[in-house]
Predict the 3D structure of the following.
Amino acid sequence: MSATVFLITPPFTQLNTPYPATAYLKGFLNTKNISAFQSDLGIEVILELFSKNGLTKLFAAIDLSVDYTPNIKRIIALKEDYINSIDAVILFLQGNNPTLAHLICKRDFLPEAFRFSQLDDLNWAFGSMGTQDKAKHLATMYLEDLSDLITACVDGHFGFSRYAEKLGRSANSFDELYAGLQLPLTYTDEILVKLLEQKLLEVNPEMVVISVPFPGNLYTSLRCGQWIKKHHPAVKVLMGGGFANTELRTLSDSRVFEFYDFISLDDGEAPLENLIAFIKGEKSINELKRTFTLIDGKVTYCNNTTTPDYKQGEVGTPDYSDFFLNKYISAIEVVNPMHRMWSDGRWNKLTMAHGCYWGKCTFCDISLDYIKLYEPVAAGILCDRMEALISQTGETGFHFVDEAAPPALMRALALEIIKRKLVVSWWTNVRFEKSFTLDLCLLLKASGCIAVSGGLEVASDRLLALIDKGITVSQVAKVNRNFTDAGIMVHAYLMYGFPSQTIQETIDSLEMVRQLFKAGVLQSAFWHQFALTAHSPVGLNPDKYKITKKTTTPGTFANNDIDFTDQTGIDHSLFSFGLKKSLLNYMHNLCLDDPLHKWFDSETMGFKMPKTTVHPGFIEDALKEDELLVFKPNAKIVWLGNPLVTETFVKSKKGNQWEMITLFFESKSQAHQIQVNKNEGIWLAAMLEKLAVKNIKTYTLQEVKEDYEQAGLENFELFWDNKPVNTLNRLGLLRL
């Protein structure tokens, strides 16, 4: 095998599914007939380490003269049990050994150390699980015990994701990372470079492209670059990805180029194409696009603006070939339903659009191109890509990793999925805006949408306005109800510690969240503390938000996360434990009527939490508000139901007789019927056939009205809002 470009995702990102960055680049290179090979070294390192042979070597490498904790001593004492069980457990987590679940659940097959003590706190979740899920969770804790062993004995940086993240996060200076990279290879590093060496000998590339999506991938990417430049100096090394896009825009430390030859920013297609041409001698170094390199010993940013970027419809279909798709590991998260989706199951990852259609949130890096430049992908192209990936991977699950998927495009995509009769499951991020009506949510559900996540952030209307979220708490409640009523799980991202946020607003925000869970319109959520970034409106205009940056001097390496002081003087980290503990309970329908102050220890915090000022029925009242039914002539009307059967009959009342029609139709769960006057019934049956989602033409409400009137019928609005049509609405006659 030989390829021009070798694409790498370094350890560790996700164990259950490949990160899509290199798949997108490989798909693009396919359109240019440039040969490429890709590897997810993260999963390959894990499979090498967590095997019978790998654990045998691991236990042999442990220095037994060290006085370890009782937990680590226990794991070492049980080494034979771990070595003998590991291959079977990995096969099970790969979905290839399902009968092992019964043995695992007996609780005498797997060795158990500290992580299993969590079961005492999770009985409320654990007890409702089926055998497969229960076993998967036990197996996950078994792997986490082994992870604790690795961290304690051979590699303090180890983690199933975010490897050595401490070294990569907020690294304004390259000094600490550089010093760490001068040390001998860690135990995990040795496995990594051994695999890397094998791949390089097989692929024999001219260029290695390393995608670094997160700070937790940075250290291992540097180790890869370091080894390649030492042992294969003729091979050029390029780094790109999310970390570079957000952190390295002002890079000036030349030492970084002891590990990479080039670092490219933002969309990678055009920069990579130019680099390949440069390496082949077809372009000069000044023709590089959005790329840092070393020229005469100085870090230089080359950006040939005459070279255009590619449109999203031109970059090709992501190509997941070369990955060990059947060897990824599904762990299980029992506490947070959305986090479980992240870790359990294999998802084909796609984007509906480049950038964010909203692009206003003041905490977000909206000044950067990857968010600022919005470009949707046509629904037809998206479905083409979905069909191609199903054929390639055998998986029908899709995670659209958009910043916020646009409602209009979601509607178009759902209609296209249904027209093509694709059987898929999918989920994505959204903005909780009023466009998500119940009808739209029902359409999304019919197309296979199973979950959405969106930012509620600080559940305070004042702070939502300051964030420029363009939503209110009441609106979020109604939208979440629409998703929930349609059968789509809702996850909310929650934030605390936004500039100027008071203690009162924190407790009031928690009260809003409590009420949302109690009302049953929110199923999953996660709190995170506000972090100031250099490229956000808050970071760019600190005075406006009444904060002070602790430093204004850019570092020579990473420059995004910024320490700051808030004029409130509040230490928001004090709220972290209470907010997260309350949420853990709310997600499992526990303690929903308990007073809020119980979650916070006043002695530890140094002050007493105030009582909430939010009315106890705020969310309930918001959900009771009637939505004004506005006649929207341009609304698209579609029928998702099956074909109807009609039957005419005569109805008599007080000596009068007239003809009626019964319309019979079947849903997946039961049979249904409605009755209308004969003329209206004839028209309705014919119109439903026209409105069927399978048809190419779609009708607006105005066109439906005109058709009704041309049939000689009267009072369209009265007929359309009457009981029979309302019944059809609940069963698939949607106004979009």
